[in-house]
Structures are given as C-alpha cells and as structure tokens.
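Run log // design_07
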C-alpha cells in the first residue's frame, strides 16, 4: 500500500487503529490459519509495529478511546510511567464535553502550522537548447577534441531504446530495464554480501572478465529476476 499513519503536525508517531472489512465475509473451516502480508510501498511513514485482530461483529468500529490509553489503564495508577499517564490524560481530555472547544482550538492551531513551502535545488539538468557540446577526445586529452558525439551507451551492452530521451531519465530507465542483465545482479549481490559477508560474486565492484565466475550462477540469476519482478 502507499498509505501511512502520519496524522500531521503534533500527532506523528502516535499509535493508530484502523478497521478494515472484507468485501464479502469469509467462510473458513475450523483451525484455519490466515497469513497476512503488509507491503509498505510509500517509502515514508511506514508502520514500525502492528497488531492484527479478527472479529465476527457485523459492523466493527474502532474503539472511542485511544488504544494506548486502553493498554495504560491495565496498569495500576501508582505504577504507570509518564508516557502511560500522558496517554490516559489525552484520552480523558478528548472525551470530556466541556473541553470540546479547547480540543477544536488545538486542532485548528495544528492545522494552521506553517508548511514547508521552500525547496533547495540540488541538481538541475541542462535544457536541450543549452546542453554542453561533447567531443571525442584524442587519447583522452581535453585540448585535442575530435568529432562531436551524442549521449549513448557502450555498444557491447543492450541497445538504448530509440524512443527514450537522451538524458538522465532515459539512462536511468535503460539501466533498470529488464533488458539490462547486469544491474539487478549487482544489486542482489550487494544484498547477499551485506547478509552473509561474501557475495555470490566475490568482487562486488567488478563484474567484468577479471572477476571470478560465481559458483551459484543460477541462484544469482534467480535472485536478480525475483528482484525485477517484485
């Protein structure tokens, strides 16, 4: 999913409760085990810890009291931590009718907090009309330019898509395309090295002819394909 639990200024990193209903009720035989997989594809605000419960209620709803307060109330008042007392107080404050105007004022002030409207330019690609002219250099000498050349990729690798833009975006798409057999292999080899200490290819910086051939080549290929598929 691409949703997250960020509730804005003043309410970040607080426990949340979500109630989700199936489109159709499940009919399960006894001793059935359910396997739930959560995919957090948003990139930010991911759930650090979650607890799942199942009910047979026809119209389930989230409890009116915050879950953290409910857990804190299970601890005797004299033994509660400052965090638990704060959770109980917040639940009490939000449930007292006399404090409703104050709670609404708090919400208004939180929503009126200044937003980040400024940004810092880290990198900007030149427009085609102002792109720098590049030449092939004789023996790499900057003061001996030969013919003018256009952005391209080594001919020994898979061809650059003819309809792709000749810029950083086009190069990134070429690099990460399924036609590129090298990028995914290098990526999963680095992950393997981070976990096991040694990569399937022992030289993660060198996949060339001087690199030792991997013993488990089929495993490396399978991991690379699985990375691209998922």
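design_07 sequence
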């Amino acid at each position: 999913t691409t949703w997250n639990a960020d509730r804005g200024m003043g309410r970040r990193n607080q426990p949340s409760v979500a109630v989700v209903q199936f489109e159709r009720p499940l009919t399960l035989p006894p001793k059935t085990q359910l396997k739930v997989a959560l995919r957090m594809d948003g990139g930010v605000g991911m759930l650090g810890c979650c607890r799942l419960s199942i009910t047979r209620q026809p119209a389930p709803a989230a409890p009116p009291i915050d879950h953290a307060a409910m857990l804190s109330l299970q601890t005797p008042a004299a033994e509660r931590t400052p965090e638990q007392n704060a959770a109980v107080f917040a639940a009490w404050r939000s449930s007292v009718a006399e404090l409703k105007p104050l709670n609404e004022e708090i919400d208004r002030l939180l929503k009126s907090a200044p937003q980040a409207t400024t940004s810092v330019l880290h990198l900007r690609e030149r427009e085609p009309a102002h792109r720098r002219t590049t030449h092939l250099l004789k023996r790499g000498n900057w003061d001996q330019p030969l013919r003018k050349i256009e952005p391209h990729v080594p001919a020994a690798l898979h061809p650059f898509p003819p309809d792709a833009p000749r810029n950083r975006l086009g190069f990134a798409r070429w690099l990460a395309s399924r036609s590129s057999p090298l990028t995914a292999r290098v990526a999963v080899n680095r992950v393997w090295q981070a976990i096991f200490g040694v990569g399937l290819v022992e030289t993660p910086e060198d996949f060339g002819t001087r690199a030792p051939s991997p013993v488990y080549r089929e495993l490396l290929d399978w991991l690379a394909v699985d990375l691209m598929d998922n």
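Strands lie at 134-137, 145-149.
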